[in-house]
Amino acid sequence: MTENATIRDVAREAGVSIATVSRVLNNLGGYTEATEKAVLQAIQTLNYHQNTLARSLKTQRSNLLGFLLPVAVTTSLDRILYAFEKEAAESGYQVLVCHSAETVEDIVKHINMLARFQIDGFVFCGHQPREALGETLHNKSAPCVLINSYQNDDSIPCIRVDDYAAAYASVEYLYRKGHRRFALLVGPADDATAGHARLCGYRQAIADHGLTLDDDLVFYGDFSYHGTLETAGRLVRQADRFTAVAAASDDMALAVLSQAHVQGIAVPGNFSIIGYDNVVTSEMGIPPLTTLAQSFEEMGRQAVEMLLEQIRTSQKPPSRLIPFDIVERGSVRELLEQGGGAIALGGPITG
């Protein structure tokens, strides 16, 4: 092992040029797998560490990306962050993570803190867009991408699922299974992004099939399990008024399953339910939860792609929509219309 080894020492040990070592360190390609292996072995042998400060002064880049997410981290956000960090590392970047409250003041404070680290770009995950936030972002020179959020004027590139279309598809799925009487469990009434879009999608699908939805069968939660338990209990007590529930998150759907168990109401015997997200715990419910799946890993990976494209070209990429799918498990029962009512067909769906 050489003390204070330099990039020149690594090149000599690996039998390659300094430029080749630099390309390997920065994941720029243009070298063989054998060359990469030789360089990495030389780095390990010499215990070489890059002088990141000197490197950033020379390249005018810190190779740091910022990731800002809400204080209450859900399973889905954790999956996005993991994929983001993995993709960033493979591209030669490290990630600074900040947890911020859902207030403009706290978000702006963390934006300014990240800016002091001279980050090359940053991501906002799950935060609602606000005018003050948008103005702050526009005043920063570092590129930015929104995940599961958006600005109405599309001034900041975003990557997300089309929540309106996905919610519409959830009701359409239930309709094809024979359900005609619905209850909805959605996010906060003041959520201008996912909550509002999902509610509108649910409502429109119901209306497009010529059905009506009683306003008192629309229940509002906070997307979480514990924060929705009381509301879920009130919903379950109305179980004789609907045959299916569309829930705007898996955690809220699982709260309904829990309350149904407490009240002795069978799912999907008495009513069916479809969730939204396909989080890990959705398949652990009793019964396992049928849900609308979105790829959180793909969001994290593509967010890095979008950031690096901005860093390299100084051009904003177009926003992207991630595909969604319905994962069938055991919480939706198929019904067959008979006159004015419906009868059950078979047992729970599994898939």
Automatic annotation (TrEMBL):
The record's SMART domains line, in alphabetical order, gives: HTH_LACI
- Which ranges carry the HTH lacI-type domain? 5-59
Pfam families the record matches: LacI, Peripla_BP_3
In terms of SUPFAM superfamilies, this protein maps to:
lambda repressor-like DNA-binding domains, Periplasmic binding protein-like I
Q: Which UniProt keywords apply?
A: DNA-binding, Repressor, Transcription, Transcription regulation
Molecular functions (GO terms): DNA-binding transcription factor activity; transcription cis-regulatory region binding
Family matches, as Gene3D superfamilies? 3.40.50.2300, lambda repressor-like DNA-binding domains
Cross-referenced InterPro entries, in alphabetical order?
A: HTH_LacI (IPR000843), LacI/GalR-like_sensor (IPR046335), Lambda_DNA-bd_dom_sf (IPR010982), Peripla_BP_I (IPR028082)
Identification of the protein by name: Transcriptional regulator, LacI family
